[in-house]
Structure formats: structure tokens, C-alpha cells
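Exercise 7.
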Amino acid sequence: MASATQKNTLVALILAAGLGRVAAQDAALETQIVDAMNKVYGVHPGFRANHAKGVVAEGTFKAAPAAARLSKAVIFNGNPIPVTVRFSDSTGVPNLPDGSPLANPHGTAIKFHVPDGSETDMVINSLKFFPVSSGEDFRDMLLAVAESPAGAPKPTKLEQFAASHPNMPRALATVQTPDSFADEEYYGVNAFVLVNGKGERHAARYIMAPEKLVHLTEEEAAKKAPDFLIDELPARTARAPVTFHLKAQLASPGDSTKDASTSWPKSDEIVELGVLTIDKSVADSLEAQKKLLFLPGNLIDGIEPSDDPLIGVRDGAYAVSFSRRNP
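Solution. The predicted structure, written as C-alpha cells, is:
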């Protein structure tokens, strides 16, 4: 259950999403992005505009002592926090084979259920950094994809876009197909600010690391069953819990907090925030995920947005997508 403030924010976003269904030239940027996704992937009623295919599970998060030194957020105080987690394939195509290269990057969204009834979310994926730095560029990238069908004259619109946005192909080159959602590493491409009880502030990007990282070659992935990732996770959690280590990569001087398309150096300090344990799947995952809304900007005291403009754009676009699948 969300707090009153969160409910008001959510209602405002969804109302804005509904009011955004106007002529394309007058639509809000977030609506234009979802429209562009629909143009690329088609319209599939009841499903997300992107990351349409997924599976929902539940578990707990228990913070490590170092987390409380970075943030006063209640999820980092060391008490077990119930979580709802959704793993997903990329694209807005709900029957896309899990082994398709188009299913990359895979995503994870975590909803932390705070004791006072509020919630906070993390929305991360297997890209090590984002292809572009702004909502306008993301919209234009999607439109370039839509305008570059097989057989399109060279250079295609997408090739032209990639040439003028060199971080796009670099970002897309960081992904591979995992053998399981549980054996993939996920990254928070947006920076957030962790604030501790002393008022000290640290910009950070999240990392969700598995116990082991296992990737498939394209040939191996192509031989897998169409739903091998979706089916494997419930089977695995029925045998034993799945664990991930949630970490924070702390920004060093010179690291950009407002440009999600730039990677941060491996030399940055990485702090263990705690262990995420997933121990059961949701019975009717397909129905459950239709009602779930994860917002990167849905934060609690001790976690603040950085100056990254994509945080707000993502919130708005997700609200537009939610309003369309739940009219």
C-alpha cells in the first residue's frame, strides 16, 4: 500500500498520462516515447509498451551494516523488508522468444514494502549504461528503429542515429542473454543520492549482482525454448531461494550524475547494501504484473533523485504505459 503522498503522485501521473492522448505534435514527451514504442513493437492490449514479457516473484531484502552508514532510508536499517520483484525481457512484444537478441537488455524492478505501508522502487536492467542521455534522444532512437525496416536504404535512419550518438552502440554491446534471470547482473543506469542521518550525501548507481554470472552465446540462446527464462525462475525458486547482492557504486569526482549514457570507472568505490532473497513465484504472474507499476522516482526519505533528467521522463512514460494497459 502506498502512502498518501505516493498515491497523490501516482494519480497525478496517470491523469497526466490520460490527458496526454492528444495529437502527436501536442503530446507530452513521455506520451511521444510510448507512442514511439507502440510504433516499433505494435500495440498489445494489457501489456507494457516495453518489457512486456515478464515474471513476478516475492522475497525479502536485508541490508548490510554499511548501507545504514550511507542512507537513513528505512529499507537500509537491517530489518527484513518484503519485496515484489519483476524480471522481464526487453521490447513490447509479449510473446518474444526469451533467447532472441531483441530480448536484451533484460530488466528487474524491485518494489520494497516499507513497514509504514509505503513503497519505494528500483528499476534496473542489464545494460551497463544507457544508450542516450535524454528523453528526446530516446524518442528519436525509437523512431529511427521504426524507420529502419529490413531493406531500408543505406545508411538507415538507425545507422545515422548511431553515428551521431556513439554511446548507443557501445551501450547495446554490453548485453548478452543469460541462462537464467537469476544468473544475470543488473545495473541502475540513473544516479540517485543517498543521504545518511548526518546529512552526508553520496551520489550512487545501483548494482544487483548474482551469486554467479552465466551468459549464453547467440547460438546457445537460439536453441532454447521460447519461454525458457520465464519458466526457469519459478522452477528454481521452488527448489531453493535465489539470492542477489545489492550494491552501490559511489560517484567519484568527475563522474556524471546527469548523463546516463556515460559509464562510471571500475575504480569507483562499491559498497555492499545487502542481500535480496527471492523465495517464491507469484501464482498468477501474468495477471499480477498488469497491476504493478514500478517508478524509478518513487523514493523514500534517505534516497533522492539526482540531476539526471531521465528519472522524471521514465516516471512519466511508465505512467502513460500503465494508464493504457489499465484503462
